[in-house]
Amino acid sequence: MTDEPEEIRWAGKFISARTRGKWEYVTRARGIRAAVILAIDEADHVILVEQYRVPLQKRCLELPAGLIGDDEGAEGEDALVAAARELEEETGYQATRIENLGEFYSSPGMVSESFTLVRAHGLTRVGPGGGTDGEDITVHRVALSHLPQFVEMARARGLGIDVRVLMLLAPGILA
């Protein structure tokens, strides 16, 4: 543990690069967090999204997700409200109930950002999804039993695979 002061090396609108002693890391600006949605329907199909990610320079297969409180005037937005909004915007699905599964960190040695993982229950398709403002999101409804093959086909197409998809593959890996 280090008690050295944190120094901001660079700050943009959404992220900043910081140091504390020898450690270099990235944080979200203004306390913005993320909500990640695990949406599995009654027929055991998971809802996934595919979108272009600039840092990877390619499309990526992911669980639906979005930022909490990133819009002007939305500071303090509730994580469950944000998750429901993002689920509908990205996938076109609404949930009758959103369950908070806890806070998680995806790369704690490099990024201080946490995300709230939620489970969406009672899914109903109400629109096409695809995101907002040119996000160009493709929605995939995939049978859990077919997920390992679907992920391999996505890799063969050159897609990146978000680490959170791994939790859905874990039963097969641990068997």
Describe this protein's structure.
With 175 residues, the protein is an alpha+beta fold. The protein folds into 2 domains: 31 residues, no CATH class; 143 residues, Nucleoside Triphosphate Pyrophosphohydrolase (Alpha-Beta Complex). It is built from 3 helices and 11 strands; from the N terminus they run βββββββαβββαβα. It has a 4-stranded mixed beta sheet with strand order 7-4-9-8, with helices on one face. Strands 10-5-6-11 form a 4-stranded mixed beta sheet, covered by helices on one side. Strands 1-2-3 form a 3-stranded antiparallel beta sheet, with no helix packed on it. A hairpin with a 2-residue loop joins strand 2 and strand 3. The model has no long low-confidence stretch (mean pLDDT 92).
What key phrases describe this protein's structure?
175 residues; alpha+beta; Nucleoside Triphosphate Pyrophosphohydrolase; four-stranded mixed beta sheet; 3 helices
Give the secondary structure arrangement, pairings included.
Elements: E1 6-11, E2 15-20, E3 23-28, E4 33-39, E5 45-53, E6 58-62, E7 65-68, H1 79-91, E8 93-105, E9 114-125, E10 138-143, H2 147-156, E11 160-161, H3 166-174
Parallel strand pairs: 4-9, 6-11
Antiparallel strand pairs: 1-2, 2-3, 4-7, 5-6, 5-10, 8-9
Q: Secondary-structure element order, as H and E?
A: EEEEEEEHEEEHEH
Strand order of the largest sheet: 7-4-9-8
Please give the count of helices.
3
Oligomer: single chain
Estimate percent helicity.
Answer: 10-25%
CATH architecture of the largest domain: Alpha-Beta Complex
The pLDDT mean sits at 92
CATH class of the largest domain: Alpha Beta
Main pleated sheet: 4 strands, mixed
The unreliable regions are: none
